[in-house]
């Protein structure tokens, strides 16, 4: 399979599986426990049908929307994800450049593999920093100040990861950051020589936002679950979230909101956006899909805060359904990580172009000239 044969997210997933050693692929692809929630995230969209209007004379389509004070060219954002240079040596640099070309938000994780300063200096499109609150308060302060200095446009506080989800694929494969060679993984690394040579011979793997404070993950191999359980602060609460919002002083998003009560509290502490998200099904298996929760959350707070539907997006029609319910935009991680792993920057460019073309085509078929024309009158639930 080649890049030119990739026409949708699942095609990129197949090519990524060919290109990556098993432990690395399953880190991207896997989720918690029985992976029910991960599957639901996409399947939820099938329970809702689009009702098009015809003869609408849609000679042009305007996909622009404004999220967290920044206008973007299409209502699809790239969620922050960790460890990207393990998936392809270009990592966050490739994803950031692709996001800048297409004109949308791009996120850097606390566990990112490219520093905040470099991204801030080289990328002009909207940038989001995802903060994991560590037990080390000095580390938290340093990351927030680095994001300020790099002129990031918003901070997203991850609120659904005070303990690691039970990601059994990682337990079976022995995945660690940085990768550790074991008898179990050696054959997979050996049979993927392009990935292995890039990892060994190119820029040394590092987590630059963390490595000046902690060696784990950069110089000391550790599983992601062990890192989250040992390093993150399980006492994270609403008071801490509000203090971080004040300390940041700008556009502030809570990532991992799934209930109406929590959405209302996000408004109360002064957040400007929420990501309705279950962390890609990687945390609490058996939880609801973001799309299934979207209507009641938009009804409760949609006039007061930007609501972003995060997770399960694989088609342009999924984007239209979320916008019709009331989301300002959608975001996703795996959709571009598969493409990054498959072909680096060219892969991310191609998957974003494919998704944008789907959104534009589906808007025309719906008889909608702009995202403002979408609403619940366009939807029916099964």
Give the SSE order as H and E letters: HHHEEEEHEHEHEHHHHHEHEHEHEHE
What would you call the shape? globular
Radius of gyration: 20 Å
> How is the CATH topology named?
TIM Barrel
For the terminal residues, how far apart are their CA atoms? 36 Å
* Uncertain runs: none
Can you list the strand order of the major beta sheet? Answer: 4-11-10-9-8-7-6-5
Total count of strands: 12
User: Helix content range of the residues, please?
Assistant: 40-55%
Structure description:
- The chain has 382 residues and is an alpha/beta fold.
- It has one domain (3-381): TIM Barrel (Alpha-Beta Barrel).
- It has helices spanning 9-19, 22-29, 36-43, 91-102, 116-122, 137-149, 168-173, 183-190, 193-201, 224-231, 238-248, 260-268, 290-301, 316-325, 334-366, and strands spanning 48-50, 65-67, 70-72, 76-78, 106-109, 127-131, 154-158, 251-257, 273-276, 306-310, 329-332, 379-381.
- An eight-stranded parallel sheet has the order 4-11-10-9-8-7-6-5.
- Strand 9 (273-276), helix 13 (290-301) and strand 10 form a beta-alpha-beta unit.
- Helix 12 (260-268) crosses helix 13.
- The two termini are 36 Å apart.
Describe this protein with a few key phrases.
alpha/beta; 43% helix; two-stranded antiparallel sheet; 13% strand; eight-stranded parallel sheet; single chain; TIM Barrel
